[in-house]
Every structure is written in structure tokens, then in C-alpha cells.
């Protein structure tokens, strides 16, 4: 598929997706989302790809949903099309996904980053949910994922005032896992992805499933699921190899990668 709004390539065992609408600060329009979903589907199916990295430009990860595209929508249109439902595809990815964010990650851009498993931010990153300033509210999980990431006080502050959070505050608040210089952002994310790519894929997928279940279930049910997944990994050759390699003081060679 020829892409207009993104680029997608493999770097080693990593699928690298770059949001690429420079004239519109990578605003997320229907075409971009459809291309992004197609690229994620392709990388999920590709057995050589073990991790996905999503990034934008140095100026903008994405400045939100495309305001010009959606401004004329009526309620009936938005409701009948279930506008935005397909934007959630990324949150259902089973392979690990890292967001590498430089510049603006606003509105849908912040929501897209939060759909990834973790966010690495450049020093110039700016996160915000400014929808309220447009007379709307976040629509792709912002009210739900932001509160889980940074707690009610900060989430309410950002969502009700529309204020922007810089990279350092985002790191202090737990929204991003690390902050690096802009020029090192993509390489840092690719290094993390390659490291993940050396590990056992079934263990990675189960780790992701267990962590994500914490958002959906009670503590006791979540711990039960974790324990059952933990037990099931003893059925894999990779568990035997991982523990044998530790005892033999060598690097494990996982089979299921
Ligand atoms: N939509 C459409 N066009 C945009 C957007 C956007 N979100 N953001 C920037 N652009 C365009 C500008 O209109 C401008 O185009 P043109 O040159 O044709 O006038 C170009 O990008 C460059 O932008 P600016 O000139 O404004 O650049 P600045 O450096 O002065 O400012 C900002 C950068 C601060 C990012 C500013 O552009 C801005 O505030 N953008 C809008 C941010 C915003 O409100 N985002 C929230 C949108 S609503 C939303 O995301 C709802 C989410 C719903 C779910 C989405 C599912 C994933």
C-alpha cells in the first residue's frame, strides 16, 4: 500500500512507523488513521517484526485530530459512523508498541501515544488534552487513560484547563518512561525495541496482557490472571532456555521470538 500520511519501514526486527503530515503538524485525519491501522496490521502479521515504534517529527508527534476535517460533522454523522472507533486499533496490538514523542502530542496525539505500551519523550515534548478549548472533550480514551497514567488531580487539571505539560513534568507524573535529547529519541526507542526483540515473544505478549488487565479488573482477579499466565510460561521452551542460560552464565537464545 502506498502511504501518503505515514511512512513505515522495518529496522532490524522493529517496525518503525512515522506520522508524516508536516504541513498540518501531523494532525490525525481519517486517511492517516487508516494507513496507521494498515501498517500496524502488517507488522503484527510479519513474523520478523517483534516490536513496533511509532514516532512523528521533531516538531510534532501529532497535534491532535484534524480539526478542519471534523469541524463540519453533525451529531448524527459522528454517531452513525461511530467516529473515532477505528482509532483504537493500536490499543489492541499484541506485539509491544513504543511511542517516541518529540514536540506536540496534543488531543488525539496524546491519546495515540497513551495507546502504546510506553512513551519515550524527547526533551521538547509537550503533552496536552486541549479539546475543552474547542468546545469538546477527549474522544479516544484521553479521559480514561490519562487518569490511570497520572492520577485524578493532574488529569483533571489538564483536561479542564487544556494546559500543556512539558517532558520533565510528564516524566515526574508517570506519563512517560524516560526523557532523552531530541536527536537521540528515535535511536533510543529503536534500541529499546531491539532489546525487546531479543526476548521471548510469548512471555512479552503475556506480560503485556497481564499489565493491561490491571486497568480492566480487580486486584485479586488481575493477580489470578497473572499467576495463570506465569504458570503457562513453564510450558514453553523459552522458559527452559532462559533459566538454563542463567545457570550456565550465558545469553539465552530464545526460540519463540
Ligand atoms: N488539526 C488540523 N490542522 C492542524 C492541527 C489540527 N489538530 N494542528 C495544527 N494544524 C495545522 C494548522 O492549522 C496550520 O495549518 P496552516 O499552515 O494551513 O494554517 C499548521 O498545522 C501549522 O500549525 P500552526 O501554524 O498553528 O503552528 P504553531 O507552531 O503556531 O502551533 C500548535 C502549533 C500549538 C500545535 C497549534 O497548531 C495547535 O494548537 N493545534 C491544535 C491543537 C489541538 O487543539 N488539538 C486537539 C484537537 S481535537 C482532538 O484531538 C480530539 C481527539 C478526538 C479523538 C482522536 C482520536 C485519536
UniProtKB/TrEMBL annotation:
The keyword Lipid metabolism applies. CDD domains: crotonase-like. Its EC number is 4.2.1.17. One of its GO terms (biological process) is fatty acid beta-oxidation. Keywords: Fatty acid metabolism, Lipid metabolism, Lyase. It catalyses: a (3S)-3-hydroxyacyl-CoA = a (2E)-enoyl-CoA + H2O; a 4-saturated-(3S)-3-hydroxyacyl-CoA = a (3E)-enoyl-CoA + H2O. InterPro entries: ClpP/crotonase-like_dom_sf, Enoyl-CoA_hyd/isom_CS, Enoyl-CoA_hydra/iso, Enoyl-CoA_hydra_C. Pfam families: ECH_1. Gene3D superfamilies: 2-enoyl-CoA Hydratase, Chain A, domain 1, Lyase 2-enoyl-coa Hydratase, Chain A, domain 2. GO terms for molecular function: 3-hydroxyacyl-CoA dehydratase activity. Belongs to the enoyl-CoA hydratase/isomerase family. PANTHER family: ENOYL-COA HYDRATASE, MITOCHONDRIAL, ENOYL-COA HYDRATASE-RELATED. Could possibly oxidize fatty acids using specific components. This is enoyl-CoA hydratase. It comes from Lutibaculum baratangense AMV1.
